[in-house]
Specification:
Layout lengths: L10 H25 L11 E8 L2 E2 L2 E7 L4 E6 L4 E5 L4 E8 L7 E2 L9 E2 L24 E4 L3 E3 L2 E3 L2
Parallel strand pairs: 1-10, 1-11
Antiparallel strand pairs: 1-2, 1-5, 3-4, 3-6, 6-9, 7-8
Length: about 160
Amino acid sequence: MQNLVFLGGTGRSRKRQTRTICRCLVVMLVLVLSAGCGGGKGDAKDSVTGKVTLNSSPVAGTVTFVYEDNKEVAGPINPDGTYLVSNPPPGKVKVVVKGHPGTGALVPTPKGAGPEMPSMAGSGSQAVPPPRKYGSAATTDISYEVKPGKHTFDLPLKP
C-alpha cells in the first residue's frame, strides 16, 4: 500500500521521479525568466523614430538608413506615417524612403515639382506613396547622423 502513495513506485523510482520533476521545474523556471529578457523591437537601446509625411499626409512604405559602406538598416512606415528603426549603428546615413511595390498607376505631379509619383488611389489607405527621388541613396537629398540613444527624426518629404 505504501508504494501506491507516490505513483506506485519503489523508493528507487521515487527518487528518480523526484529528480525528474525537479529538473522540469528548473527548466520551466529558466524559460519563464528568460522570456522577459528583451530582444523585442520596443526594447531597443538605440532607435530612431519619426513621422514621414508628404503635403501633411502620411507616407506608406519603408525608411532605410544607407551608410557610407552601403550597409542598410530599415524600418516599416505605419499607416499613420510613423516609423521606427531599431538598433541602427552610429554614423552618417542617407535616408531612403521607398513605397510599397504595386501601388498603382502613375499620377502626374505639378509642373516643375519633379518626376511622376505612383498613386495609391483605390487601395483603401489614407497614406500616400513617396516621390521617387527619395527611393535610392543616389537621389535622396536627406542625410542624417545616427547617434547612440533614442532619437526622433521627422521626414517631411517634398513633391
